[in-house]
Design brief:
Elements (H helix, E strand, L loop, with lengths): L6 H12 L2 H5 L9 E5 L2 E5 L1 H8 L23 E8 L4 E9 L5 E9 L5 E9 L9 E7 L2 E8 L16 E7 L8 E9 L14 E2 L4 E8 L4 E10 L4 E9 L5 E9 L9 E7 L2 E8 L16 E7 L8 E9 L15 E2 L5 E2 L7 E10 L5 E8 L5 E9 L9 E7 L2 E8 L16 E8 L8 E7 L9 E5 L10 E3 L6 E2 L3 E4 L9 E4 L3 E5 L5 E7 L14 E6 L2 E7 L2 H9 L13 H4 L7 E7 L4 E8 L10 E6 L4 H17 L15 E5 L19 E8 L2 E10 L7 E5 L7 E10 L9 E8 L13 E8 L6 E11 L2 E15 L7 E4 L4 H5 L4 H17 L4 E3 L10 H13 L7 E2 L2 H9 L1 H17 L6 E6 L7 H15 L4 E6 L13 E4 L7 H9 L3 E5 L4 H5 L1 H6 L4 E3 L36 E2 H23 L3 H13 L4 H6 L4 H16 L2
Parallel strand pairs: 11-13, 20-22, 29-30, 42-49, 50-51, 50-57, 52-53, 53-54, 54-55, 55-56, 56-57
Antiparallel strand pairs: 1-2, 3-10, 4-9, 5-8, 5-10, 6-7, 6-9, 12-19, 13-18, 14-17, 14-19, 15-16, 15-18, 21-28, 22-27, 23-26, 23-28, 24-25, 24-27, 29-40, 31-34, 32-33, 34-39, 35-38, 35-40, 36-37, 36-39, 41-43, 43-47, 44-48, 45-46, 45-47, 46-58, 48-49
Keywords: Membrane, Transmembrane, Transmembrane helix
């Protein structure tokens, strides 16, 4: 068999791991798929998840339909679909109505690979039931140089989920080559009749029996691949086994891979695949044929085996194979297979994949059984200079796709890492518990384009953090456990009354679940006359909920261990605002800054009474009325047991949430200095220092433009109260903020923490300088409409007695930047405590007015305001809140996000329509703008979206026929719902492109953007380029649970108006993303001004055309090749200045 060149196969492998199938196939999906790429001498394995992750980042295909739909009739033999063409761009044949094919019809593809290397050709076939990747046929053919023919029978076609395709209703055929790979020359693609054999392939009646002790390979190496083909298929018996004997000649573990096909194998999912990690030295690997199953858990037909391949992963060391032979070993397969049999028991310290390179895969035959209190630990070293994303996939014997397996993710910074996955946390995306007693597979992989890296190993750990004489109790469901702790379930007799389960995100091993509603805990204790009791009492919260009991008491054996009594304002200050002024780096690591206080730890030493420890709990504010997470009892007066648990929690937490940013080397601070950051510096900033930063810079601006300038102070002296002075020309009022160092889930990875200075705090009395830690200082002002010439902006500071200053000269073009009426802004809810402890309306309006004024300072124009549900008794209040937004200067229409849903839940669908009609009439009578009424928030989440949306829309139309109906769409599958809406808010999941938005407008639908990854671009250049007419980003203020803890939610906190002690302070505290939004709105104002001039000014038209060409017209292209926005903004300002020149 001819050897295959490595050039294009390497490209194919990279494409399969990084390219989104949806971008080529015209779909957007989050599905799981497996891919095997074949060379004659090697099988390239890739994990499902890498393809799935790529899919989520791509939008629908932009392929044009290339042929008119033929009539719905049986295919004619010899019909030519394509001739004399290439597979790039894709060849697409659509059938509307669907086309019927017969059982003898085949698709015959004839062509040539004109290159001197292998190329890949891909085929997709849809029927009328095809909706996503899993529901369509997908074939991949690797073609050697020269001519080729590929015959695909319609009979027996199945989709990726093994559903039989309806060949009487074929809707689409697409032939293509992967992106960025060479195309094949296609001579013809025709439909022909070729009668198929009557014998079922799976039964393989012509299969030849296997000979016992037949040697397949001897004295060979696993690179290149060792391949044994059987034509006709070979029959093996239930006592036959493949016995592989060899040695690993290297000094570390290597991987050996085995693939077995039967006559039904067509792709990766339909063949047997197994990887074995082999330590140095000799080895024997016995693989019984009995019970063999493919990746989809189908039992292989061992009487029809067609191929056996033994190989090593590409670019990895090979194993020496003494022999691979078929032997008769009765009973060898009795405990093997992925569908039954006894399981191995995982032992503490047992390890696999030592020294393996990613992607690393460990199969368990028989399946492995893990104990509830064990954990799987992945160790290794990130040798890259940047953080990488590590994915751990765990399958049980029933896992078939992404939804049925555990998928854990962590971002690891450079250097050694440890990633723990507690067995008790093994929950699949479908919310089912993985069968920990029958684990079939581990797969460890990296993010696209990362690595590979070499693992230390994957091993089993656990063990109790408690001293031997202590008792640990963990409260909650039986399937959530902590090593060393006994699990106390809700109906345990030691509880009174029975508790209620509460399960949170698997973030902190001790706080991820607990029990509510407990009043008394009684635990027998006879080990000592005195005992130290430690209670972990805080529910970590989730989403917008944070436990807010005002009154809590814990009494242990008659001794009051904790008594809390707060007024609402006291609770906000002492609990909700706790740690407000603590900073990353300056005050320690994440554990020291916020995580250590999350447990609500209560400790007391008490006498033992009647051989028992009795804990009495009293608290208000359900559901956290009587909450308990864990309890430790230790003899005597020592707190060592609680301290050991806290040390264990800290270690686990810091492993779970690594910090990817490193502090600046404090030795770089020599003396005291203040520098100005040059134009174009990103608004989101992480720790850095550059001694070449200037002390003076020049900027350009227009009249009416908001200007934001960043400075950086750096000193080898600490100062708890530095002096700050801003010098601006007379008549200009500026604001100074300082960047609070904060741990955030921003820009670092899915499960890691970054350090940013993006919280721009307006209270200068809290400013401090720490030696060796740079301090961001931010200055903002609006250029007066009468300004001209150069405006000097000087920031002066006195740090530890040293006076320093830096300067920015702002050159003003005497052109007034017009305002924009395009709504660009945020969804704006009141702070969470206002829902728990509602203030009086006048107070709420005063505070909200301060928030709205803060946003308007940065030029924001759009709003989804905080609104009550407009029932008859609250309608007047609804009008007041609408007037508040209007008076603040925001551009209508305002997006009403929740009223329709809340009304329908509260009064029913018909009465909802009546209330909407009455509210519209009241708004009109009051001269207030009518809102956009949202009836859908990502409707794929609805059980019956088409019916539900129609009911809501129709009910509104009856009572408010002119009401503007809107919704948020985040999936390409939402397109059928478009007729229900007047305005749609879409994001990258739905697809953001100029072409799509033009189509929407042609249908009378107004497109807006929402929740875009690049806020600055979406507010300006991208919005303008794609033709959106508004943009709303969630959230202006959405603290998940504890606002100081960025890790207690399934998503990061989104707080463009961060937590602050005083919402109405003179200089409002904002996130740097507010500044970025303002930058985008400035771009939009410039572009709209340019549009106005382009009709009459050839230079304006030329510049407009240049910018239009520089900005990709869809998000996929924009993300792939992001334009230099500051440079384009500078061109606009330069042009504006030139128009004002004499």
């Amino acid at each position: 068999m001819a050897a295959c060149g490595r050039g294009n196969m390497g490209k194919i492998r990279l494409w399969l791991s990084g390219f989104a199938w949806g971008a080529m196939l015209g779909v957007m999906a989050s599905v799981v798929m497996g891919v095997a790429v074949f060379r004659p001498d090697i099988w390239e394995k890739l994990s499902y998840e890498r393809i799935e992750r790529a899919l989520t980042r791509k939008t629908q295909s932009t392929l044009d339909t290339s042929a008119p739909p033929p009539a719905s009739a049986p295919a004619a033999s010899g019909a030519v679909l394509f001739a004399n063409t290439r597979t790039a761009p894709a060849l697409e044949q659509n059938y509307a109505p669907p086309h019927a094919f017969g059982p003898d019809d085949v698709l015959v593809i004839k062509g040539r690979n004109a290159s001197n290397d292998f190329v890949e050709v891909d085929l997709r076939i849809d029927d009328s039931a095809s909706k996503d990747w899993g529901s369509r046929f997908g074939g991949v053919k690797t073609v050697p140089p020269g001519p080729f023919e590929w015959v695909v029978p319609f009979k027996g076609l199945t989709d990726q989920n093994k559903r039989a395709m309806d060949i009487n209703a074929i809707t689409r055929i697409i032939l293509f080559s992967p992106e960025n790979l060479p195309a094949a020359q296609i001579a013809s693609v025709t439909l022909e009749r070729r009668p198929q054999p009557a014998a079922a392939a799976g039964s393989a009646p012509g299969a030849a029996p296997a000979r016992a002790n037949a040697a397949l390979f001897t004295d060979a190496s696993t690179s290149p691949a060792l391949e044994q083909n059987y034509a006709p298929p070979r029959a093996f018996g239930p006592d036959d086994a493949l016995v592989i004997k060899g040695s690993n000649p290297t000094g570390s573990a290597i991987e050996v891979d085995l693939r077995i096909d039967d006559s039904a194998s067509k792709d990766w999912g339909s063949r047997f695949g197994m990887a074995k990690s082999v330590p140095p030295g000799p080895f024997e690997w016995v693989v019984p044929f009995k019970g063999l199953a493919d990746q989809n858990k189908r039992e292989m037909d061992i009487k029809a085996i067609t191929r056996i391949i033994l190989f090593s992963p590409e670019n990895q060391p090979a194993a020496q194979i003494a022999s691979a032979s078929i032997e008769n070993r009765p009973g060898a397969g009795d405990t093997t297979g992925s569908t039954g049999g006894a399981a191995n028991e995982a032992k503490m310290g047992q390890s696999w994949l030592k020294g393996a390179r990613t992607t690393a895969e460990q199969e368990f035959y028989p399946p492995m059984s893990f104990a509830q209190d064990q954990e799987v630990v992945v160790t290794g070293t990130n040798t890259d200079s940047k953080p990488i994303t590590l994915y751990l996939r765990i399958d049980d014997v029933n896992s078939k796709n992404w939804n049925s397996r555990v998928n854990a993710t962590v971002t690891v910074p450079p250097g050694p890492f440890t990633f723990r996955s507690p067995v008790s946390s093994w929950v699949t995306p479908s919310k089912a518990r993985l069968d920990r007693t029958r684990v079939a597979r581990f797969v460890i992989s990296l993010g696209d384009g990362e690595g590979p890296i070499r693992l230390g190993d994957v091993h089993v750990a656990g063990g109790s953090p408690l001293p031997k004489d202590a008792l640990g109790l963990r409260f909650g469901p039986a399937d959530v456990s902590v090593p060393g702790f006994e699990t106390v379930t809700r109906n345990d007799l030691r509880l009174s009354p029975a508790g209620r389960d509460l399960v949170r995100t698997q973030n902190d091993p001790l706080l991820s679940s607990g029990l509510n509603g407990v009043r008394t805990i009684t635990v027998p204790w006879t080990k000592s006359d005195t005992a130290t009791i430690s209670l972990w009492t805080e529910d970590q919260g989730e989403w917008e909920y944070f436990p807010h009991s005002l009154h809590r008491t814990f009494i242990i054996n008659g001794q009051v261990a904790l008594k809390e009594d707060y007024r609402p304002d006291e609770w906000v200050e002492k609990v909700f605002h706790r740690g407000l002024w603590k900073e990353a780096m300056i005050d320690g690591d994440p554990w020291e800054v916020y995580a250590s206080r999350r447990a609500g730890l209560v400790t007391a030493t008490v006498p033992v009474i009647d051989g028992k420890i009795t804990v009495q709990i009293s608290s208000d504010q359900p559901p956290n009325d009587g909450y308990i997470a864990a309890m430790v009892i230790a003899p005597g007066a020592s707190t060592a047991a609680a301290e050991a648990v806290e040390a264990w929690r800290r270690g686990r937490y810091m492993e779970r949430w690594p910090v990817v940013d490193k502090p600046v080397d404090p030795k770089l601070a020599q003396g005291t200095t203040l520098r100005v950051l040059p134009y174009g510096t990103p608004r989101s900033q992480h720790p850095f220092w550059d001694p070449n930063l200037p002390t003076q810079t020049r900027l350009k601006a227009l009249r009416g433009q908001m200007v934001s300038i960043d400075f950086l102070a750096f000193s080898d002296q600490s100062d708890a109260n530095p002096d700050v002075a801003l010098k601006l020309p007379e008549g200009i009022t500026g604001e100074v903020r300082w960047g609070k160092w904060t741990y955030m889930r921003r820009g670092g990875g899915e499960n890691s923490l970054s350090i940013t200075s993006d919280v721009l705090e307006g209270d200068l009395t809290r400013l401090r300088i720490a030696a060796g830690i740079p301090r961001r200082m931010n200055v903002t002002f609006t250029v007066p409409e009468t300004a001209s010439g150069t405006l000097p902006v000087v920031l002066a500071m006195n740090i530890g007695g040293a006076s320093v200053e830096a300067r920015a000269d702002v050159e003003v073009a005497p052109v007034t930047l017009p305002a924009t009426a395009t709504p660009v802004g945020y969804y704006m809810a009141a702070p969470n405590p206002d829902f728990w402890f509602p203030p009086k309306p006048a107070t709420a309006d005063r505070l909200m007015a301060c928030d709205l004024k803060a946003l308007r300072r940065f030029g924001l124009t759009g709003l989804s305001p905080d609104l009550v549900t407009p029932t008859a008794d609250q309608r007047a209040r609804y009008l007041e809140q609408t007037r508040l937004a209007k008076d603040a200067g925001f551009s209508p229409p305002f997006f009403d996000y929740v009223s329709v849903k809340l009304l329908a839940d509260k009064v029913g669908v018909q009465a909802m329509g009546e209330n909407i009609g009455a509210t519209e009439a009241a708004l009109t009578a009051a001269g207030l703008p009518l809102p956009l009424w949202s009836i859908a928030d990502e409707p794929q989440n609805l059980q019956s979206p088409m019916m539900d949306l129609k009911r809501l829309r129709d009910a509104i139309r009856v009572y408010a026929p002119k009401a503007k109906i809107a919704g948020q769409l985040n999936d390409i599958k939402d397109k059928p719902f478009l007729p229900f809406f007047d305005t749609v808010l879409v994001n990258t999941g739905f697809g953001v492109s100029a072409r799509d938005f033009a189509d929407l407008k042609a249908q009378g639908i107004t497109p807006w953007l929402y929740n875009m990854p690049d806020i600055e671009a979406a507010a300006g250049f991208l919005l303008w380029r794609v033709g959106a007419e508004g943009y709303i980003q969630w959230h202006a203020r959405a603290a998940t649970a504890d606002p100081s803890d960025p890790t207690d939610g399934r998503e990061p906190d989104f707080m463009f108006l961060p937590l602050t002690a005083d919402r109405c302070q003179s200089v409002p505290t904002v996130d740097a993303m507010v500044v970025a939004t303002g930058d985008g709105i400035t771009d939009l104002r410039l572009l709209q001004w340019l549009d106005g001039r382009a009709a009459s000014d050839p230079k304006a038209k030329a510049l407009r055309d240049e910018i239009f060409a520089a900005i990709p017209g869809d998000w996929v292209g924009f993300e792939k090749q992001k334009p230099n926005l500051p440079a384009l903004r500078r061109k606009l300002i330069d042009y504006a200045g030139a128009t004002a020149a004499p």
